[in-house]
Description:
By secondary structure, the chain is mainly α. The chain folds into 2 domains: 2-197, Clc chloride channel (Orthogonal Bundle); 212-414, Clc chloride channel, CATH 1.10.3080.10. It has 20 helices and no strands. α8 (159-170) runs antiparallel to α9 and α10 runs parallel beside α14 (298-311). The two termini are 38 Å apart.
Amino acid sequence: MPVARRRAATALGATVLALIALAFTRSADLAMALFDRLFAVLPWIPAALTPAIFALVAFVTDRWASEARGSGIPQIISASRDPKGDLATRLASLKIAASKLVLTLLMLLGGASVGREGPTVQVSAAVMAWMHRILRVPITAGVLIAGGAAGVAAAFNTPLAGVAFAIEELAAAYEQRVALLVMAAVMISGLVMIGIAGDYVYFGVLRSTIAFRDTLLVAPAMGVVGGIMGGIFSRTILGFTRSKGPWAARLKRHPVPFAAACGLIVAILGILTGGLTWGTGYAPARQLVEGARLDFWFGPAKFFASVFTTLSGTPGGIFSPSLAVGAGLGNAMAPLFSAPPSTVVLLGMAGYFVGVVRAPFTAVIILMETTASRSMILPLFATALIADAVGSLICRERIYHGLSKAFVPDTTAETPARISRS
C-alpha cells in the first residue's frame, strides 16, 4: 500500500503540475502580448507602468511573500536539504506557489526581463509535495527534486533536460530511488504537455550546421565570451546580495524605491530597443535561431535589462532571459566568422547560459531539444565546457547554490537577502 500511494502521488502530482505549467505558459504569453500592445499604442507608457509594477511587486513580495522572491530554483535547493523541516514547508507551499505565479505574471505585464522556468520549478515542487501530503506519503528530497525536474521538462517541453537539470542543479546526491522518481515525474508531465500542447520545438528548428574548421574557432570564442559575461552576471548578483557596504545596505533597506528605479532602467532600455529587451526574450531568440538578424546591441541591452530586473529582488526567472542574452551575443559576433550565423547564435546561447548557471550538461540538452539541433551536439559540448571553466574563474560559486543560502534561517537572520532568481 505505501508503494502504491507513492506511485499514485507521483503520477497525480506530475499530471497536475503539467497542467499548471501549461496554464502558466499561456498566461505569460498573454501578459507579454498585452504589454506589447500597450507599447505599440502608447510608446512612452512603460516609463510609468514598468517602475510602478516593479515597486508594487517588490512591496507585496517584501510584505507577504518573501519566499517567492527571485527564481524559485534556489528555494527548492534549500528545501531539499531538509524536506521534512519547517523551511521546506514554507518554501514549497501552495500559498507561495500561487503568489509566485501571480507576481511573475505581473512582472511580465510590466515588461520585466524575467523567465517563467525558475518559477515553474518552485511551483511544480510545491504541487508535488502537496499531492504527497494529501495521500499521506512522506516527503523526501526526491519528491521535491522530481517536482522541480518535471517543472523544467514541462516549461521547455524537454524531458531529457528535466532529468539533466535534476542531476546537475537540484540533487546533491543522485541516488537510484531519486532517479526513478525523477524519470517517472518527467515522463508523465511530458506526456501531459505533449498531449495538450503538441510536440512543439521551443526555440524553432535550427536548419544550419557548422563545419569542423569553424567549430575550432567559434566554440572557443563563444565559450570564452559567454563564460566571461555569464560569470560577470552571477558575480554581480551574488555580490550585491551579500554586500554589507553602505550603499548596498541603504538600497536593501528601501526595497520598493530601489525596485522602482530598476524598473525605470528596464523601461528605458525597452523603449530604446523598440521593446526587444522586455519579457522572456523568447521571440527574438527564436528569430535569431531561425536565421533572422537583429542589431548588434540586442545582446548587451538584454544583459543589462536582466541584471537590473534581477537586482530588483522581484519574482521571476533567469533561464529564458539568459538564453536570449546568449543569442544576442552570438548575433553580435556572427559577422566575425564564416560559419552560418544561426550556429554562432546557438553556441552563444550555450556559452552565456553555462557562464551564468554553470550546468553544461543541462545547457546542451536543453538547446539540443529546443532547437532540434542534434548535429550540433559536439560544438555545443565544447562551448559549454569552455564556458564552465571560464565562468568559474569569474565567479567561483554557482549562482543557484549561492542564492539558496539566503533561505537558510541562520543566514537570513544575519543578512536578509533580497534576491534569488532563475
